[in-house]
Design brief:
Order of helices and strands: EEEHEEEHHHH
Largest sheet: 3 strands, antiparallel
Distance between the termini: 49 Å
Organism: Psychrobacter fozii
Protein name: Type IV secretion protein Rhs
Strand content: 5-15%
Number of helices: 5
Structural class: alpha+beta
Number of strands: 6
Strand order of the largest sheet: 1-2-3
Helix content: 25-40%
């Protein structure tokens, strides 16, 4: 059975089945905006390949929460409730969220096993933390300037980079409810520079 792909613009493709002449719309995501690229460069320099990244305005799977994004394969699937047409023009909270997810893109592009590690952390750390009240969960971290970014868990890395962005931009008070450092009163900008920059900007 032959198939023909027809270009329908920047955001979608239509697959046409030549036997029954039915067209099926397939979400192909969108490219990063120039503003988003500039926002990413603040934290990652030129160490993310923008050409391969797609931003989706849909859930990756049915159980994905309405306030959640998933970035398993170098692209990001934002639930429609939290997707933005341009995160660089969105609220500081949304930008912080975007930087967190872009860290997963950076991890993927640099060979980290994002899916395996993220699933493991959700099962063995985040779920027990939420359901049983054990520990601080997969996203919280204690910033230690004797460590590098790669010494932390996959979600902790993303939290650290996003929080570093907030601190660099003087937003640590405005975004205090989003900051995941358990020792935030002792987590200074110089500490984030030591932990993060050597890894993501080398």
């Amino acid at each position: 059975m032959s198939r023909k792909e027809i270009d329908c613009g920047n955001r979608h493709l239509t697959e046409k089945n030549n036997s029954d002449h039915k067209c099926i719309e397939v979400d192909a995501g969108r490219k990063l905006t120039s503003g988003e690229e500039s926002l990413i460069k603040e934290m990652f320099g030129n160490n993310i390949d923008f050409k391969t990244v797609r931003i989706y305005n849909r859930k990756l799977w049915s159980k994905q929460k309405d306030t959640m994004a998933i970035a398993p394969n170098g692209s990001i699937y934002f639930a429609p409730k939290v997707h933005k047409k341009d995160f660089s023009l969105a609220s500081d909270t949304s930008k912080h969220f975007f930087i967190h997810e872009m860290t997963h893109v950076w991890q993927h592009q640099n060979g980290q096993m994002v899916v395996l590690r993220a699933v493991s952390e959700q099962i063995f750390i985040e779920y027990p933390s939420q359901k049983l009240g054990l520990g601080h969960g997969a996203y919280k971290y204690e910033l230690d300037q004797t460590k590098t970014l790669l010494d932390y868990g996959i979600e902790q890395q993303a939290s650290i980079v996003a929080d570093y962005w907030a601190l660099k931009n003087g937003l640590h008070i405005e975004l205090r409810n989003s900051i995941r450092a358990t020792n935030r009163s002792e987590a200074y900008l110089t500490h984030y520079i030591i932990v993060v920059d050597e890894i993501i900007k080398k």
